[in-house]
Amino acid sequence: MKKIEKLYSKKNQRHIDLKLQDKVSLKNNIFQICMNNKYIVSIEMIQDDECPIKGVINKIDDNKVIVSKLTEYGEDDGEAILKKENIDTISFLGVDEEDIQLLKRK
């Protein structure tokens, strides 16, 4: 436990306060939180888990999520229109996403 506490402190880690909306699915809440905060996300699709889409969510509707894609170097890489039903996993505020954010800032 001491090791975890030391690493947490040295890495300046923090917990975010996720304000979830009632009567909205967890998946849709996560999409909305990421879009509102402009978090860089990694999205894995059901049929292509080897190559996650990384970027910032621009728009959400009932059936799809629109992402401004970023390369691993934080450079713009076009846009992806993703069907919600095909999204398997969404990650944000992880090491990969933070690295892209740092590179994007230059």
How does this model look, in words?
The chain is of the alpha+beta class. It is built from three helices and five strands, in the order ααβββββα. A five-stranded antiparallel sheet has the order 4-3-2-1-5. It is globular, with a radius of gyration of 15 Å.
Detail the topology: elements first, then pairings.
Elements lengths: L1 H9 L15 H12 L2 E6 L2 E13 L3 E7 L5 E8 L3 E6 L2 H11 L1
Antiparallel strand pairs: 1-2, 1-5, 2-3, 3-4
Short description:
With 106 residues, the protein is of the alpha+beta class. 30% of the residues lie in helices and 38% in strands.
Strand tally: 5
**What level of helicity do the residues show?**
25-40%
Number of helices: 3
Residue windows where pLDDT falls under 50 for at least 5 positions: none
Question: What coarse outline follows from CA principal-axis ratios?
Answer: globular
Q: Strand order, biggest sheet?
A: 4-3-2-1-5
Percent strand equals 35-45%
Average pLDDT score? 86
Please write the string of helix (H) and strand (E) elements. Answer: HHEEEEEH
Distance between the termini: 35 Å
Structural class: alpha+beta
Task: Please supply descriptive tags for the structure shown above.
5-stranded antiparallel beta sheet, 5 strands, 30% helix, 106 residues, alpha+beta
